[in-house]
Amino acid sequence: MMGQPPRDGAPPEGLAYRRRRLTDAARLLPMVGAFAVFLPVLWAGRDSPTPDPAGTAAGGLYVFGVWTLLILAAAALSRPLARGDGSGAGHGPDRP
Amino acid sequence: MLTFNTLALACGLYVAALFLIAFMAERRAERGRLGILRSPLVYTLSLSIYCTAWTFYGAVGYAARSGLEFVTIYLGPTLMIVGWWAMLRKLVRIGRTQRITSIADLISSRYGKSTSLGVLVTVLAVVFTTPYIALQLQSVTLSFSVFAESTPDAPGDARATALWVAAGLAVFTILFGTRNLDIDERHHGIVTAIAVEAVVKLVAILAVGVFVVWGVAGGPSEVFRMTEASPIARWQMDQSRWLTLTFLSAVAFVCLPRMFQVLVVENSDERHLATASWAFPLYLFLMSLFVIPIAVVGLAVLPEGSNPDLYVLTVPLAFDQDALAMLVFLGGFSSATSMVIVASIALATMVSNHIVMPIWLSARRGGATVSGDVRNVVLRSRRIAIVGVLALAYLYYAMSGGGAALAAIGLIAFVGVAQILPALLGGIFWRGATRTGAAGGLIAGFAIWAWTLLVPGIGEGALMSQTLLAEGPFGIGWLRPQALFGIGGIDPVVHSALWSLAVNTLLFAGLSLVGLPGAVERLQGAEFVDIFRYSGNARGWSPATVEAEDLLMMSQRILGASEAQALFQAAARGQGKEGYLPDTTSEFLERLERELAGSVGAATAHAMMGQITGGTAVSVEDLMRVADETAQIMEYSSRLEAKSEELGRTARQLREANEKLTALSVQKDAFLSQISHELRTPMTSIRAFSEILRDGGDMAPETRARYSTIIHDEARRLTRLLDDLLDLSVLESGQVTLHRQIAILGDILDHAVAATENADSRLRILRTTGDERLVLHTDTDRLSQVFINLISNAQKYCDAEQPELRIAVRDDPEGPILDFIDNGSGIPKENQSIIFEKFFRVGDTRAAGGAGLGLAICREITARLGGQLSYLPGQGGAAFRVALPPRLRQPAQGAAE
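^ Those are the sequences you sent over. The predicted structure of the assembly is below.
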């Protein structure tokens, strides 16, 4: 999902470009997550057509697996995003 | 076996520890050592108030009944915070720049600082939060009752327990939630305490999980096998509920008042959100990891008919794990208390800012300028609101009988809170969203929610009869609460969420499209939607004919005297001016309003500013700026505007300097004639009388004595004048020697007051001797000379019926501050900048004596002592502030006694 990290000595435009793609990835992540979370609707339904319905145990493994991947992806994205957003970090009205 | 009393004791100790932690955190924050209090870790942990007792105990019960569905309640927030970049980041930025105090404030502020929208959201928040708090009380009493059953001597009345818990929570919340009216509405003590509680509940649930998996079942693969063999082995997913609940919980994560409080209001650094984006999902992951195993084991080992909502507690008890059960109990207690505390703070803030303050303001016409501290009104109303909310929740709990009906409340509240979503999303992403749209959508959505879910949901047939449910009101079939428009057979929660949100969104969008928003509304819309582009650019006020002094007077009452003075001073310095009164530029007005909004909410702050500025809120240029949505022209014109503003300011400063110079020159001329006059009058009489004495040979001894006395008096007057002049020139040239010694401020004041006492003066001096026990290292004679001068000035010039002089002493970290405030008519603004000049006298009051050197000497003396003497505007009468240098750090009590 993430682009290649910028190479050393890459021109500033390249950095800015990477950064924009990084924010794209950050916006995409919840959609990918929602897709994965909603996916079982297709095969775990109460009146699912599958002859061998899905089990809670296996379903649990799937859900927690997706969850783990989401956490890892968010962790990987959060650091570079926070670093680049430093300008706005302390933002807010100045205290007198 | 654990007894009820051990449990109550443990509970008490735990609460005491929380008090201590909150107290220490407040102390640290006060000293400015925020450190860990402002770390991303504490922020993430504070988000965990999402996991209430409903999820702590209820998740396992939920899983025992419907398998995996419980996980949707955690997956929604996960998706929401994983996608922080898209929405939460914007929300937090808006909250910080606009000084948002609650979700009601956000909605009200976005839609033109509307008071009515604030009231609407506040009322709705109270409606759906109260049952939710009742649910927490129920869960605590339920967990108590598990232990009470085994102890004969336990108090049997569950309601008594609930009452005690509610009262204790009210005390804690009032102590740490309303200690002071923070400018930024952050509560370090409470946030730290709930972070600790977050750790306790996580550790508790993990401990039970580990015990169940490895201690009872015998490893993960065994658990897997047991799950396959359990009653919930099949994943019977209700697709519509799976989708709806995930969506609702994602929305609730942002819109619940308590979540908004920790997520946005208490946020101290936007970067914390980045850490929370993975750390909070991890927390939720760990909280739910062992839910299915505990449910499966509970179903297998506990007797049929035991309450699955208490499996977390009863499974360890069934295996005689008393310590573990105790930990779980504390975990559940933590989940309930932290939720209740934050929820009641959030509600109290809303009630005080959006209901009490507007009423208070309109009850006093022209109220913004009268004297008295508004902060007390705000704080008191918050305290009352906290007690009110908890009392309401307790009543709700007591009347609903604490049965199973309450358990359904969690989801009912989620649907209710989701009604805020269209107005919220539209507010931050769509410039065209209007107040009418937001209000229409909210009202319709809530009405449908109440009709289809809230009323039928509170107890079977309690408020709504079975026939009504089955046939609709007056037999109108398509209005049946659980089958609107005749479409039945849908799960009630899904049904309600679908219809209420659909109608809500439709009305919101439709009314916004056809309506015409007001000026402030459009301004705020642009500000919110383009927060990352034009942060802090919009101006809501045109520089009208506002007196900075009036503004200072109002701000002092909301922000507190020293904070407001510091703010005004900083603003004045930013404009290159001395003193406390900056120019009332539109930037300054905008910034001031925002500061006020941080304390009392946007709508109230706007109304108060409006009262003072006379309501000329938005200028034509501002409107054009909003209407013109092309950024280029806007940028250009705003740059021009800034330039001309700057030029204007420089010109103003020049004019001011020029006026001052002219006044000085006039004064100098006046002085020269004055001094010659002052010198010549005594000289003339001395000469005249000495000539009489010299020439008149035979003179009565009395006459001779009288003439000599006159000569003597006149000579003394001359000496005094020359002394003053000499004193001043010595002081000004810096050649003065100071005799510093240790003294108590109160003693110096006593001396000064005694020295100025005379029979003619009616001046009453008000002092608070308690504050005056400060040890100073200073030249006491010189300092008391300053005090004497200030007091005798008040005696001479205070023109009130019953003149009073208040001497207020404050021990500031930067040194003691003394304010001498009288109740006369004060010093006119045009004179304020020159009263400290030499030979200045207010009006022509030669009768008062003195050559107008007193204040100039005083100012020089305080400067030599390392302090500052200044005029303090906006206090009602004439007010002088003596700021002394930082004093010796030494206990004053010992020296004072």
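The first strand of chain B starts at residue 740 and ends at 744. Strands of chain B lie at 740-744, 764-767, 775-779, 804-812, 815-822, 868-871, 879-883.

Shout if you want it in another format.
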